């Protein structure tokens, strides 16, 4: 969701900006732009659509050593060149990620001072505000101008500023949206995250909230409340990788395939981190907060923890948690699950939980991300860089970690771990031929997913995967709820995918499948091998057998065919699988 880059140094700026923007593509965007100094003038270039469109417009022969770039994920106003960043007013040119909550009030004030706005964006207002403060306080240094602007801006922002009068500097300011400064040899990089310039430098300053940074060719300074402060340079090591597609056509397929190889790695790495965990037994309440796929992993975690330990666990959608009564105190452990570690809603929950005295534990994939830095304790899921917007391996890594937590604290101290056999079982599901199923699904408008208990949760995730990348409407229902309403949606040939992995609910779910089959549904049954003595062949059209497993590994195994069904259906529809429309990988606004 919006990517920011900046560069100041001896090299030509345009290729560096474009490279950085391409690395940040995974965050999701619908337009892109750059601004750079060329012969004392700030040049702007913007385009809607992919970065390739912007590249077509760039004149690489224009020499420049300082510039900024942006990929915009539209929030305020349509996807137009006008609304794209950078925005320029007077002597100020900026790129921005985040949301200025009070932009309408500020806009009115600035209009009354004579500013005319050309765009619908909140960013143009922030740009005008900085310009106005600068113009009207000629004695103030630029750092102080930005400091004054910070006092007026409400909301979240990572902003990079170029000033017409200061052609040897880039300014950055940050509140609740991520921003890092990479330190090279007589060059500095600015980016929304490390992945933009990992091959250029491994040394970074991670900007904290309310900080302002000033970079010149040979120096960087960090200020807070107008006062110069010390900063820490963090050197990244092997925790961060630059992802490539390898031989796969899409990142999503590469990431689905990686799941079987990652299991062994997770086992070792998790146990390395175990020592650093809080004593979970000392809390009265466990709350899990997360969004989207990570929320589904949390629901699986609830199931595994409650079934096998004596903890009561409640799971909350992060964007709702903050606005409800949540009984947070020092006896509460709040577990925040997030692949990116940047999800604004989840981050806000963690901050609120800490303020109310709760202990916070992050289950995070991206090393050193905002949530990872804020929580009291962190378990890294080590899924590696996940590029496809639709999360796959990050989800299984989250489920894996939650399963290990449940194993760790299980009340019956029996040693069970069937994770070793998981890679072979996953590979078996990879080999299944999904083409007949996909042929039935890809032109449909609605697809329904059914399951009971933990299978219902897996189906929530399967259904989310499908809708994200195929744009087919899909919903997951607890199988027992069908008769209470949703069954009215079933008509001739409506696809229904059902999952059965537990003996105690198998017979009941099979009855529900028969009910939809009797009303003409096209039924795909995914069922654990040997779970029932025999299934009536008339109750399904296609069947996928899951290799026999146990309750810990079953949610990992059952998601594989669902990920693949979504992937192959999107492929059949010839869609942009890795970058589905309207979606961002990292949701940094609330
Ligand atoms: O980075 P996070 O895990 O915090 O992201 C949460 C959701 O935005 C994310 O899981 C989203 O639902 C994915 N696109 C699902 O595939």
What does this entry look like structurally?
- The chain is α/β, with parallel strands linked by helices and 590 residues long.
- The chain has 16 helices and 25 strands.
- The strands form four sheets. Strands 3-2-4-1-10-9-11-15 form an eight-stranded antiparallel sheet, covered by helices on one side. Strands 5-6-7-8-12-13-14 form a seven-stranded antiparallel sheet.
- α4 crosses α5 (142-152).
- It is globular.
- Bound molecules: 5-amino-5-deoxy-1-O-phosphono-D-mannitol (M6R).
- 5-amino-5-deoxy-1-O-phosphono-D-mannitol is lined by residues 291-294, 338-340, 343, 346, 389-391, 468, 583, 587.
- Residues 291-294, 338-340, 343, 346, 389-391, 468, 583, 587 line the site of 5-amino-5-deoxy-1-O-phosphono-D-mannitol.
């Amino acid at each position: 969701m919006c990517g920011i880059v900046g560069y100041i140094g001896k090299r030509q700026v345009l290729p560096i900006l474009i490279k950085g923007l391409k690395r940040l593509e995974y965050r999701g965007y619908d337009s892109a732009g750059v601004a750079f100094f060329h012969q004392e003038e700030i040049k702007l270039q913007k385009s809607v659509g992919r970065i390739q469109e912007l590249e077509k417009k760039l004149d690489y022969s224009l020499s420049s050593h300082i510039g900024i770039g942006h990929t915009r994920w539209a929030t305020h106003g349509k996807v137009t060149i006008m609304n794209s960043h950078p925005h320029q007013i007077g002597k100020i040119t900026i790129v921005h990620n985040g949301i200025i909550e009070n932009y309408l009030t500020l806009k009115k004030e600035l209009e009354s001072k004579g500013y005319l706005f050309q765009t619908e964006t909140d960013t143009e207002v922030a740009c005008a505000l900085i310009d106005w403060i600068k113009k009207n306080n000629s004695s103030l240094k630029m750092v102080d101008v930005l400091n004054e602007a910070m006092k007026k801006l409400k909301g979240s922002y990572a902003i990079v500023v170029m000033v017409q009068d200061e052609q040897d500097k880039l300014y950055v300011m940050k509140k609740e949206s991520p921003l890092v400064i990479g330190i090279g040899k007589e060059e500095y990089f600015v980016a929304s995250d490390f992945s933009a310039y990992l091959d250029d430098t491994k040394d970074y300053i991670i900007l904290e909230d309310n900080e302002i940074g000033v970079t010149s060719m040979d120096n960087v300074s960090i200020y807070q409340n107008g006062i110069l402060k010390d900063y820490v340079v963090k050197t990244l090591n092997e925790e961060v990788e630059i992802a490539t597609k390898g031989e796969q056509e899409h990142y999503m397929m590469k990431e689905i395939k990686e799941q079987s190889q990652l299991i062994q790695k997770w086992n070792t790495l998790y146990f390395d981190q175990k020592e650093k965990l809080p004593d979970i037994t000392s809390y009265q309440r466990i709350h899990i907060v997360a969004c989207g796929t990570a929320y589904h992993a949390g629901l699986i975690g609830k199931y595994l923890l409650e079934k096998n330990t004596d903890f009561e666990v409640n799971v909350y959608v992060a964007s709702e948690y903050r606005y409800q009564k949540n009984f947070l105190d020092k006896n509460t452990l709040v577990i925040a699950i997030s692949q990116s570690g940047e999800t604004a809603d989840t981050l806000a929950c963690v901050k609120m939980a800490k303020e109310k005295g709760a202990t916070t534990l992050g289950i995070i994939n991206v090393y050193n991300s905002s949530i990872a830095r804020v929580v009291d304790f962190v378990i890294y899921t080590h899924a590696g860089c996940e590029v496809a917007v639709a999360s796959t391996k990050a989800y299984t890594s989250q489920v894996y970690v939650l399963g290990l937590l449940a194993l760790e604290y299980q009340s019956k101290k029996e040693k069970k771990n069937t994770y070793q056999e998981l890679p072979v079982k996953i590979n078996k599901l990879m080999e299944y031929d999904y083409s007949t199923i996909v042929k039935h699904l890809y032109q449909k408008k609605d697809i329904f997913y059914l399951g009971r208990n933990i299978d219902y949760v897996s189906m929530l995730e399967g259904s989310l995967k499908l809708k994200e990348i195929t744009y087919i409407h899909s919903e997951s229902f607890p199988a027992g709820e069908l008769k209470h309403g949703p069954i009215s949606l079933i008509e001739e040939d409506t696809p229904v995918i059902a999952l059965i992995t537990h003996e105690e609910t198998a017979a009941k779910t099979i009855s529900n499948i028969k009910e939809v089959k009797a009303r003409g549904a096209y039924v795909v049954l995914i069922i654990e091998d040997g779970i029932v003595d025999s299934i009536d062949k008339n109750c399904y059209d296609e069947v996928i057998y899951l290799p026999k497993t146990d309750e810990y590994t079953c949610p990992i195994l059952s998601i594989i065919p669902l990920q693949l069904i979504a992937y192959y259906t999107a492929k059949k529809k010839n869609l942009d699988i890795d970058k589905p429309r309207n979606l961002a990988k990292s949701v940094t606004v609330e």
